[in-house]
Structure of Fumarate/nitrate reduction transcriptional regulator Fnr:
Amino acid sequence: MSQRTVISLESIRVACKNCTLSSLCLPMGLAQEDVERLDDIVKRARPLHRGDFLFREGDKFRSLYVVKTGSVKTFAPSQEGGEQVLGFHLPGEIIGLDAIDKDVHACSARILETSAICEIPFARLEDLTANIPSLQHQMYRLLSKEISQDTDMLLLLGKKNAEERLAAFLLSLSQRLHKRGLSPLDFYLSMSRHEIGNYLGLAVETVSRLFTRFQEDGLMQVDRKHIQLLDLPALEALVKGVGQGRDKQQQPG
Amino acid sequence: MSQRTVISLESIRVACKNCTLSSLCLPMGLAQEDVERLDDIVKRARPLHRGDFLFREGDKFRSLYVVKTGSVKTFAPSQEGGEQVLGFHLPGEIIGLDAIDKDVHACSARILETSAICEIPFARLEDLTANIPSLQHQMYRLLSKEISQDTDMLLLLGKKNAEERLAAFLLSLSQRLHKRGLSPLDFYLSMSRHEIGNYLGLAVETVSRLFTRFQEDGLMQVDRKHIQLLDLPALEALVKGVGQGRDKQQQPG
DNA sequence: AAGAAATCTTGACCCAGATCAAGCGGTGAA
DNA sequence: TTCACCGCTTGATCTGGGTCAAGATTTCTT
């Protein structure tokens, strides 16, 4: 089994300080020596594959997980075997923050495409943050950012129609890929139409029709999982609700 | 102006250690001496009235706010002057956590009924948490809980129909009031039908019709803002989707 | 390489809930 | 006390997008 050797070499090479994601991830804004302290508690496993679970709903909460490469979806069970996709997670994004409070995972996380994942035992991280103020601050920011994102999603599900939702989804992906040094205009989807629809509160058929329509309208080129965005400004205009959302009136005090 | 005196007497009496909410709020699980340290940084203003703003979207983030008595709504602007109600906040609940990351409030908070509010300057709280591990832990828990709640709301907006949404809303209020020592079955709504609809992603008319229907079905008694829940089990059954939600199928790996 | 099983697309139809419209209290200002 | 306004209810109608159905592709098995 020479594989053990390969893995251990790998885990040296991929230390946080060498990671291209460090500006997006937990180490953001940390001093070099503090990054090394963080590095000491991070566990890096061999790559996981499509369909593998990072954790399941009901599992005891032990660690946070950070996507290093690849992508992951999180989802919660709804009634009677259905599920609600809660998010798609790209490199640098943290998974599991919602479980700190209850100490049990309320959602499951499943690998979408072959991925490398960093595991961060939470108890050790918490100790570390008590001694590194900038890391504590970073944790507050990450938790807060997660709340903001959920808030954006509430607005999307509460007020936007189908085409606004899909446009918002595409632009969100585009921007997040761009921050990671990838093309914002040309990318592959790692999730199915079904999963996109589930995430956006739409039926698969609606997603499919919208892809077709957006393509007809020259907003994008779709070939199976391969997406090319041709008209960002038009997509942005759609999200802003140029095509009208619901409930434009205020509530008086 | 003898009012100054009254206020300052008041602010002694209402210290966290005497507050009936301390088991729900930030002081939860803290040692007595640590509660006092927390107390030192909490500011208590005179009561605010319906329509007053705690903060507005775009304001610089300085403090977290905790409802002591009364209730508050938070809402984000959607496109073209509309708004999305993000939450209704009862005594013991913390407002403003979503602004830590960006350092600017992305939503507004407005008083629904005469309320007493505790203000906690965040910079000072952050210093304190770095020195009180149990307070740091409590902060992580509170942030995490906020994420879980948003997640529940995503499921509600993504998968539940109108009656499931309203039933879930009523039960959530009922449970939260119960935890605060109030009746879970008999209470007054501090928000309008319009605000409820906005929050749940429904039109006012739908909310109104559902109140009427729930009453006809013997689930509750409605008199204007006065609510009496008559059949909790039936409401719970509704939320669980006995009347069927959407998308019960799984997505294969 | 052939068959089986998903995934995706497209068309036809339908319905939950939005929108439009009208009327009814309740509440507050003068 | 009256009037005006706002919040709420109820009815009538409309529609975005869900559901059902049928193929077309693609991808997994063996």
